[in-house]
Design a protein that fits this description.
The complex is a heterodimer. By secondary structure, chain A is an all-alpha fold. Chain A has one domain (2-132). Chain A has helices at 2-17, 26-37, 41-52, 62-100, 104-132, 136-151, 156-173. In chain A, 53% of the residues are buried. By secondary structure, chain B is mostly helical. Chain B has a domain at 1-110. Chain B has seven helices and no strands. Chain B has helices spanning 15-28, 34-45, 51-63, 68-110, 115-140, 147-162, 167-181. The chains are: A mainly alpha, B mainly alpha.
Chain lengths: 174, 188
């Protein structure tokens, strides 16, 4: 029972902190999960990667963590805890919007939060890179993906799956 | 910018149509870019929002905590059908991917140390890292060109990844500084 409460509290906190989208809380999530639920660096990155090939919002992989810790009930609790608090906040923010539309501070706060959330996202990249780039091959695959996503219009899912297949072939046969 | 419909001719939307449209987005949006799908649905396909309304809601979605795509669904749903519209739109967006993730997640949890699966995941993880870097670069957009933004980005990254402070602490330190840097200019 206490495990479920802990799951709910952890993911509610992450939900409220996820300014600038889910990737901003990746480093914090990884730290909390390692401390509280013994989820290792490698497991976290694997679970994160699975989430990247799924349709829909890119942080649905939190469900796998919930499932891993406490089965289907855990997944349900994580879903509610991660999406409900931020959605309720956003709901009321939307209703207040016209109220503040002409207030110069609203613009100021938004301009200030944007680079802050980009900094958090950069930390997210760093956290994922530390666990996923483990050899020269993985570095090449990551850089190649980065290049393809920025320079071409290929759907990212195919690029990531291709990276998986190339990595598999290399590690298995060479 | 007012979000009220000027003519008062509020578009009629049924909850079931709202659910179906967002379920479709939730199921086909492989590879991210959900905001783009939502834009096509809301502005072009169904004309449920004006471009102005959409941009206003997008700004709130990005400023508030939570996933931008889910926040946008909440706001558009509320605009169209009130609180139930918000619930239905967000659920529609989340459900298909949740099922997908759960099924693969169960398979992963059951075969945790399958050597072949691990080899495949090694490459996928490297690719996902490249994707995340690309998205970060793109969302940063104009900010990479402004010294003020770059300083805030670098300090946030440093406190988080190098000093290893917790996120609430980093927020407490960085939010007041960056809001001060971007404070509204006094109108003459």
């Amino acid at each position: 029972m206490s495990m479920l409460v802990q799951l709910a509290l952890t993911f509610s906190l992450l939900s409220i902190l996820a300014v600038g989208g889910g990737t901003a809380v990746l480093p914090e999530m990884q730290t909390l999960l390692a401390q509280q639920f013994d989820i290792t660096h490698a497991q976290f990155v694997h679970i994160y990667s699975i989430g990247q090939v799924a349709p829909g919002p890119n942080m649905l992989m939190v469900l796998i963590i919930g499932f891993k810790v406490a089965g289907v009930v855990g997944a349900g609790i994580v879903l509610l805890a991660f999406f409900l608090p931020s959605s309720i906040l956003c709901f009321y923010a939307g209703r207040l919007w016209s109220h503040f539309a002409h207030n110069p501070w609203r613009r100021a706060i938004q301009s200030a939060l944007e680079p802050f959330s980009i900094g958090l996202m950069a930390s997210g990249v760093y956290a994922v890179a530390k666990a996923s780039i483990v050899s020269p091959v993985t570095l090449i695959l990551a850089l190649f993906t980065l290049y393809l996503i920025l320079r071409t219009k290929i759907n990212p899912v195919f690029v990531i799956l291709g990276s998986g297949v190339l990595g598999f072939i290399y590690l298995q046969f060479f | 910018m007012s979000l009220e419909n000027p003519g008062g001719d509020k578009v009629k939307v049924t909850l079931s149509d709202l659910l179906i449209q967002f379920l479709i987005i939730g199921a086909v949006s492989f590879g991210g870019g959900i905001i783009a799908y939502e834009r096509i649905l809301l502005i072009e396909k169904r004309k449920w929002l004006s471009t102005d309304e959409f941009m206003g809601y997008l700004a709130i979605s990005q400023t508030m905590p939570g996933l931008n795509s889910v926040n946008l669904a909440v706001l558009a749903g509320d605009h169209l059908r009130g609180i139930w519209g918000a619930v239905i739109a967000a659920l529609g967006l989340i459900l298909p991917g949740s099922l997908f993730v759960l099924i693969i997640g169960i398979a992963y949890t059951n075969n945790n140390d399958h050597p072949l699966a691990n080899l495949l995941l090694t490459g996928i993880a490297a690719g996902a890292c490249g994707l995340l870097a690309a998205i970060t670069y793109r969302i940063g957009d104009e900010h990479w060109k402004h010294l003020k933004s770059v300083i805030i980005i670098a300090c946030t990254f440093g406190l988080m990844s190098i000093a290893k402070l917790s996120l609430p602490l980093v927020l407490l330190i960085m939010a007041p500084i960056s809001i001060y840097l971007y404070r509204p200019k006094l109108q003459p």
